[in-house]
């Protein structure tokens, strides 16, 4: 047995390693959070929020000091970005004429895919389908990706 194999101060020691490794905190994981749709418009987005909520989306609106409205929407569909994006687009494509008129005033339409950064697994891959990308482009949307740093106080 090598000296390092029985060293109690070495967490990888064959004598104490299993017990010590089980006490180490789990490394932070890379994980998909959600996809948010951020929009901005010079007109009230409240009627748009109400209509999109009717289609199952969740949203909040806010008017800024300069009179510009912003809103954030989420879809509750699936566990990967493509399903969330498709859910958001389903609502947008079902808008009434008045809802579409408000949508057309938006000068920002960001589909923001968010991830938490971590050490494991080695990589995470999610597909956004050609169909979703086409639909997003037809809606005048932009795909963005946001990666949030690990926060030890944040509980997933």
Most strands sheet: 5 strands, mixed
How many domains? The number is 1
Order of helices and strands: HEHEEHHEHE
Strand content: 25-35%
- State the distance separating the first and last CA atoms: 42 Å
- Look at the helices and sheets and give the structural class: alpha+beta
Percent of residues in helices comes to 25-40%
- Mean pLDDT equals 86
Give unreliable regions as ranges.
Answer: none
Described by its quaternary structure, the protein is single chain
Globally, the shape reads elongated
Determine the number of helices (DSSP H or I, runs of at least 4 residues). Answer: 5
Detailed description of the structure:
- The protein is of the alpha+beta class and 156 residues long.
- The chain has one domain (31-148).
- 30% of the residues lie in helices and 25% in strands.
- It has 5 helices and 5 strands.
- A 5-stranded mixed β-sheet has the order 2-3-1-4-5, covered by helices on one side.
- The protein is elongated.
Helices and strands in order:
Layout: H1 17-23, E1 31-41, H2 46-54, E2 58-63, E3 69-74, H3 81-93, H4 97-105, E4 108-116, H5 130-138, E5 142-148
Parallel strand pairs: 4-5
Antiparallel strand pairs: 1-3, 1-4, 2-3
At a glance:
The chain has 156 residues and is of the alpha+beta class. The protein has helices at residues 17-23, 46-54, 81-93, 97-105, 130-138; strands at 31-41, 58-63, 69-74, 108-116, 142-148.
Task: Give me some keywords for this one.
alpha+beta, five-stranded mixed β-sheet, 156 residues
